[in-house]
Design a protein that fits this description.
The complex is a heterodimer of chains A (277) and B (268). Chain A has one domain. Chain A has 13 helices and 2 strands, in the order αααββαααααααααα. A two-stranded antiparallel ribbon of chain A has the order 1-2. In chain A, helix 2 packs across helix 7 and helix 4 packs across helix 12. The longest helix of chain A is centred in the middle third of the chain and has 31 residues. The radius of gyration of chain A is 20 Å and the shape is globular. Chain A starts with a helix and ends in a 9-residue tail after the last helix. Chain B has 268 residues and is an all-alpha fold. In chain B, 41% of the residues are buried. The radius of gyration of chain B is 19 Å and the shape is globular. The two termini of chain B are 38 Å apart. The chains are: A mainly alpha (277), B mainly alpha (268). At the A-B interface, helix 2, helix 3 and helix 10 of A face helix 2, helix 9 and helix 10 of B.
């Protein structure tokens, strides 16, 4: 099967748009590097708090919790920090600002779906975060002595899984943001979504700490693939078949959420009435 | 006499700004249900976490399950007030400095800090105050030796806890006059507050206790009233916490006053 000229034109147009959006957000992140750096320091609070709480619980419980030793719990939250920094994107709340100040009108005028700007822009913004995240991770390794020694193939799966995590999160954030076409305010809906993500993605606690019924439910929902799965790849013992199933589910959720977003978008965009312009 | 007049004027400005915001928020009544739902989900997350912890141990560095419920309730109260009052106002300040609309604040015949910190109000978020209070009361029911004096102390110290968090966010948001776009930082700090505020400071090792308090003092703010309610606070600590509150408020005022001197008007 060969690529037709119209398809290659589409690809070229999108690739050049992605480069431009990524460069724009990268430059913006460099311009505002101090707030970015301070924000990333503040972000360390979350994994450190979880790490201390759960390693304390593991210590008080004979050295393990949910099948993980205290060292593995430390490893989970060290990798957690890396994933959090590398998969951050435009939160759904950004959509509320776009609705309220009318900047969405500009985005809709472009000959490309706004989700592409978010995906590429978030990637550009994350480049500087990736640079800062490395010493941050080293600091956590020194402070908390995690039990972490992944093989090279697992690191490769981790990288692929991280990219899929980032894509899935960006698409789902865009879908939640699209609620604003009906409500203008996205804040409350966004918080409800993020609360579910916090609980069911492995961000608050590793899914293995849950009772079996909740862990099984979480495995079938998209949230685990927006955060926890890449961490589990590096920090738990997974068979090849589990790794493949996990990656396949991530890809499936990316496809399902993309189709769902395009369907919702078709109805949503008809309701746009340019608030604030 | 002059001070009394200025206080009355300040209160009337505050009331007028909140009346306008209240009317504005009434347009978005669906947000009441969503906010209520979100507070309940947040609480569920907090309770699930506590249950997971106490499914494995009897106490977390000396803190028992009912005591941690008091902490969770106190955190929910503070979180709601931050969402309702502090964060929307700080975001508005950053936006104003970025697009130059802060000129309008300077032109108002009222104290700039008062206007900047009271003109936004997300009314529906305040539902969390009632729910958090109920959770704290539920937890306190199972703590031995809680007296009316403890409850009165708790009520006063919740206000001082809010003052500590308010002062901290005002001081951080003042950086916007130099660094301009602080929305991401404010959001990250608020998130840091959400995660560290659910646990008392006493569960952390000393170095982390100091570090977390320096990054965002909500752990301290939540721990102060919670400790008073469960009878862990000594009179010395009580006095010290009142002194800390006064120092934070004076310091944040000083930082804000200094910061606005460097504002040059982006739209001018």
């Amino acid at each position: 099967m060969s690529i037709t000229s119209s398809e290659s034109g589409w690809l070229r147009r999108h690739a050049s748009a992605y480069r431009a959006f990524a460069a724009l957000d990268f430059k913006s992140s460099v311009q505002y590097r101090w707030p970015t750096l301070l924000g990333m320091l503040a972000l360390l609070t979350e994994p450190v708090v979880y790490l201390v709480v759960w390693t304390t619980v593991a210590d008080g419980n004979g050295g393990t919790i949910g099948g993980l030793t205290a060292g593995q719990v430390s490893a989970y939250y060290v990798v957690w920090t890396l994933v959090r920094n590398l998969t951050a994107g435009y939160a759904p709340m950004v959509w509320e600002i776009r609705f309220r100040d009318g900047t969405l009108a500009d985005l809709l005028m472009r000959p490309i779906h706004p989700v592409h700007a978010d995906i590429a822009g978030g990637y550009g913004f994350n480049l500087i975060r990736a640079v800062i995240a490395l010493p941050q991770t080293v600091l956590m390794v020194v402070l908390f002595q995690p039990d972490l020694s992944p093989s090279l193939p697992l690191v490769a799966v981790f990288v692929v899984s991280n990219v899929l995590t980032y894509l899935l999160r960006a698409i789902l954030f865009c879908a939640v943001g699209a609620i604003g076409f009906w409500t203008t305010r996205v804040d409350a809906a966004s918080r409800v979504y993020l609360a579910f993500e916090l609980l069911l993605s492995g961000r608050l606690v590793p899914i293995g700490f849950f009772p079996a019924w909740l862990a099984t439910t979480a495995a079938w929902l998209p949230f685990r693939y927006t955060f926890g799965f890449p961490i589990e790849v590096l920090t738990t013992t997974m068979s090849t078949s589990d790794l493949c199933t996990g990656l396949a589910r991530q890809i499936a959720w990316v496809v399902v959420s993309s189709v769902a977003l395009s369907v919702v978008w078709r109805f949503a965009v008809r309701r746009f009435d340019a608030v604030g312009v | 006499m002059a001070m009394r007049r200025s206080l009355t004027h300040g209160l009337s400005v505050w009331a007028a700004l909140w009346r306008v915001r209240g009317l504005h928020e009434l347009h978005y009544r669906a947000n009441l249900a969503l906010n209520l739902f979100q507070v309940l989900i947040d609480l569920t997350i907090g309770v699930v976490t506590i249950l997971l912890v106490f499914g494995n141990v009897d106490a977390l560095n000396g803190w028992t399950e009912p005591e941690l419920l008091v902490v969770l309730g106190t955190y929910t109260i503070l979180d709601s007030v931050i969402r309702a009052v502090v964060l929307p106002n700080m975001y508005a300040l950053v936006q104003d400095v970025q697009d130059g609309a802060f000129d309008n604040v300077l032109a108002m015949p009222a104290d700039e800090q008062l206007v900047v910190t009271t003109r936004e109000l997300s009314v529906w978020d305040l539902t969390g105050v009632l729910i958090g209070g109920a959770v704290a009361a539920f937890g306190a029911r199972d703590v031995a030796g809680v007296s009316p004096a403890h409850v009165a102390g708790y009520a006063v110290l919740v206000v001082t806890a809010f003052c500590i968090v308010y002062g901290f966010f005002v001081a951080v948001a003042s950086l916007t006059f130099r660094l301009v776009d602080l929305r991401d930082l404010l959001f990250r700090l608020f998130q840091a507050a959400s995660y560290s505020g659910r646990w008392p400071l006493g569960i952390y090792p000393n170095w982390l206790r100091v570090t977390l308090t320096a990054i965002v003092p909500i752990g301290l703010a939540v721990t102060i009233p919670s400790s008073a309610l469960v009878g862990r606070m000594t009179p010395t600590q009580l006095v010290l916490s009142l002194v800390v509150t006064a120092v934070v408020l004076i310091w944040s005022r000083w930082v804000f006053r200094r910061a606005i001197r460097s504002y040059s008007g982006a739209s001018a």
